[in-house]
Amino acid sequence: MHRKTAKRSPRGFSLTEVLISLLIIAQIATFTIPKVLTSQQNRQFEASGKEAIATVSAVFQQHLINGKLSSATTFGDLTQYMNYIALDTTTPLDDWQGATPNAGTSCANYRCLRLHNGSKILWDPAESFGGTATTNVISFSVDPDGKITDGTANGPGHSLYIMLYYNGRITDIGNVAPTGTSSKYTWSKNTAAVPSWFTWN
């Protein structure tokens, strides 16, 4: 004799269980999504900064090979070898980390090149090496997104200040050693001015 067994219908989730699960997922997303987006933005900024630095290093070598390097060399002298989109004479940019953007950090007061990756390089046209020692520098800054990002002192998108030494060495303001001197400025080590998105690694 065969015994008949009743078929049980599969049990689903209750509305309460579904709502609790969704609440947990929402809480996790609240904490993780902003971190993922910030990390992605930082990687993009860092790539833009390193690309600009590599470009400047290459054009400096070209200037040197052409026998034109002197104490009077300015950053503007290097731009003749650069591939860029446009010269910008109006846009305000982010200053370095810890400094709120102001009218002084503007392409209207200095010179700016807009690069193909969206970043901008800013430099002072009146600054030259001012000498031929290994401590003589010219400086420039790289704004990774080419604009004021949020207008705060420590927000994203702050510019990276770079020193190009007369011997071709290149470093950021957080690693200036020894003190760099140009015809116009003296640059000392300032690790707090390096934006959070940048590392050399």
Principal-axis shape: elongated
Spatial order of strands in the largest sheet? 1-2-3-4-5-6
- Distance between the ends: 77 Å
Q: What amount of the residues lies in strands?
A: 15-25%
- Overall pLDDT level: 91
Largest sheet: 6 strands, antiparallel
Order of H and E elements: HHEEEEEEEE
Rg over CA atoms? 26 Å
Low-confidence parts: none
| Estimated helix fraction | 25-40%
Content-based structural category: alpha+beta
Tally the beta strands: 8
Helix count equals 2
Task: Report on the architecture of this protein.
- With 201 residues, this protein is of the alpha+beta class.
- It contains two helices and eight strands.
- The chain has helices at residues 15-65, 75-78, and strands spanning 86-88, 111-114, 120-123, 137-143, 160-165, 170-172, 180-181, 186-187.
- The strands form two sheets. It has a six-stranded antiparallel beta sheet, with helices on one face. Strands 7-8 form a two-stranded antiparallel ribbon.
- Strand 7 and strand 8 form a beta hairpin.
- The radius of gyration is 26 Å and the shape is elongated.
- The chain starts with 14 loop residues before the first helix and ends in a 14-residue tail after the last strand.
- The model has no long low-confidence stretch (mean pLDDT 91).
